[in-house]
């Protein structure tokens, strides 16, 4: 069986180094917001090419803390509208709602699965105050267009970069293409911890200062609480593990692109629509997502041939039970995507033999 994502194999090469880190953190006796977190914050800020990185509990919290930080700064207020794609992972939308802001859903482009800048322009109102751009599946959203719209309309731009660590375009790198960006280090992400983890990155020093405080009970000085904060800190041990993995991120992303290149050039089947990619580093292939009309049939066929696939995602947010008010809304492009997408195995540890086998099985379908 070729597994969709072999996390054990991804982490295996680090086993000895992880154990040494565990030992040193243990011996250090400092388990929360210690030197590993600080080191990671510096390393990851450098990696993204930004001034500040704040390690937090997970990717969802990273997004929420950005919005709450801007509310604290007076740049956003309760009821402001935030434009976001209708076909994102639920976390993007939950973050907006949980910050007392109003998500305004817009259609993506079918080809890239990313937010359609024209749809953004159509949904602007006097209440629009921010755009949340998701780099879905690892491919950068059209940030030049989005930033132009934002500049013309005085909007904040926030990146949901949870799937796009290290993606680069001529305009910059994921994390430095907006006012502030959120990352997740959930184990399955391109840079994954051995548990939950997340980070905010930004060049905005005022925002960074507030988020450093908000993640830690709204307190900078122990037992002095300036803000109504939360407890959402990047774990010391996870930071230690991430410090070991970060130096290999670019190499891992390159490996993912090589797998993608094989899929794109060698899968030849009229029943399958391959994803768009301009062959640059603007895609880090967190996921390799194809489309096909009879998706469940193809998934069963692949499974019968020993190939595990996943669906990202089977139900669009506006059709979720949690958002019953939205269930009557219609987003045809989004719904088509959710009905047709299938994610092929994708990771830096897939072997050439595995990739060739997957291609061969798909070409026989
Ligand atoms: C994973 C993910 C998140 C949330 O990250 P967690 O660490 O699981 O909270 C947010 N947005 C997108 C697009 C994601 O893929």
From TrEMBL:
Q: Which InterPro entries match?
A: DegT/StrS_aminotransferase, PyrdxlP-dep_Trfase, PyrdxlP-dep_Trfase_major, PyrdxlP-dep_Trfase_small
Q: Which GO terms describe its molecular function?
A: transaminase activity
Instruction: State whether keyword Transferase applies.
Output: yes
Q: Does the keyword Transferase apply?
A: yes
What are the protein's UniProt keywords? Aminotransferase, Pyridoxal phosphate, Transferase
State the similarity comment.
Answer: Belongs to the DegT/DnrJ/EryC1 family.
Q: Which PANTHER family match?
A: 3-OXO-GLUCOSE-6-PHOSPHATE:GLUTAMATE AMINOTRANSFERASE, TRANSAMINASE
Q: What is this protein called?
A: Aminotransferase
Q: Which organism is it from?
A: Flavobacterium limi
């Amino acid at each position: 069986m070729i597994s969709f994502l072999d996390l054990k194999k991804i982490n295996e090469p680090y086993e000895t180094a992880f154990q040494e880190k565990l030992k040193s953190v243990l011996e250090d006796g400092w388990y929360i917001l210690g030197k590993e977190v600080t080191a990671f914050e510096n390393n990851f800020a450098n990696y993204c090419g930004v001034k500040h990185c704040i390690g937090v509990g997970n990717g969802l919290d990273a997004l929420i803390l950005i919005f709450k930080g801007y509310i604290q700064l007076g740049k956003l207020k309760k009821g402001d509208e935030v434009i976001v794609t209708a076909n994102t992972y639920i976390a993007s939308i939950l973050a907006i709602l949980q910050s007392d802001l109003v998500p305004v859903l817009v259609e993506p482009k079918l080809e890239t699965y990313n937010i359609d800048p024209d749809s953004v322009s159509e949904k602007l109102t006097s209440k629009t105050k921010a755009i949340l751009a998701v780099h879905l599946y690892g491919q950068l959203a059209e940030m030049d267009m989005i930033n132009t719209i934002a500049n013309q309309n005085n909007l904040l731009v926030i990146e949901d970069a949870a799937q796009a660590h290290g993606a680069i375009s001529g305009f910059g790198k994921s994390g430095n293409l907006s006012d502030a960006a959120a990352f997740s280090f959930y184990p399955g992400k391109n840079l994954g911890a051995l548990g939950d983890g997340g980070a905010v990155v930004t060049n905005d020093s005022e925002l960074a200062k507030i988020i450093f405080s908000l993640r830690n009970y709204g307190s900078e000085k122990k037992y002095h609480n300036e803000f109504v904060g939360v407890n959402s800190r990047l774990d010391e041990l996870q930071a230690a593990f991430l410090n070991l993995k970060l130096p290999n991120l670019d190499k891992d992303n390159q490996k993912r692109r090589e797998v993608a290149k094989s899929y794109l050039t060698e899968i030849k089947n009229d029943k399958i629509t391959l994803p768009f990619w301009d062959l640059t580093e603007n895609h880090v292939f967190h996921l390799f997502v194809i489309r096909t009309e009879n998706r469940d049939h193809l998934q069963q066929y692949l499974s019968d041939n020993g190939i595990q696939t996943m669906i990202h995602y089977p139900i669009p947010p506006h059709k979720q039970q949690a958002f019953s008010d939205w269930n009557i809304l219609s987003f045809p492009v989004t719904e088509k995507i959710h009905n047709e997408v299938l994610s092929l195995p994708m990771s830096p540890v897939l072997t050439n033999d595995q990739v060739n086998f997957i291609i061969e099985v798909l070409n026989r379908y």
